[in-house]
Amino acid sequence: VQLQASGGGSVQPGGSLRLSCTVTGRIFRIDAVKWFRQAPGESRELVAAENRDDSTMYVDAVRGRFTTAIDNANYTVRLQMNSLRPEDTAVYYCFIEGYYSDHSTLKGFASWGQGTLVTVSS
What we know:
Layout: E1 2-6, E2 9-11, E3 17-24, E4 27-38, E5 45-51, E6 56-58, E7 66-71, E8 76-81, E9 90-102, E10 105-112, E11 116-120
Parallel strand pairs: 2-11
Antiparallel strand pairs: 1-3, 3-8, 4-5, 4-9, 5-6, 7-8, 9-10, 9-11
């Protein structure tokens, strides 16, 4: 199981970015995703999460601006980030839990994406 993150970059305040993490391998299903971010000099913090039943969680700082989604047709998770602010500048990480096939049995996995930098600046 491998994760490939994409979608980071630089944007002006008020702009939008969409982050993606794609899982490759003999993936059976993604069950949950958590999105974390780590700003310079700060500890890593959880900002959003989603389970396979579509339940979601957002911290107050991003609620109403960020939306997370699980796409099991493409084994990809996405974080749509709108109305970005300078304080959203950070390295963003996905953490994905799910199942993969191993010789006709299902095994669980829990893996981190490699992190992608988001910079919000005028």
